[in-house]
Amino acid sequence: MNKVAVYGSLREGFGNHRILEGSEKLGTHWVPGYEMFSLGAFPGVRKGNTHVFTEVYEVNDNTMKRLDILEGYNGENQTNFYDRVEVDTPHGKARMYTLEGHRYKESEPVESGNWAHYKTKLKDLL
Question: Catalytic residue among 35, 71, 76, 100, which?
Answer without folding.
Answer: 71
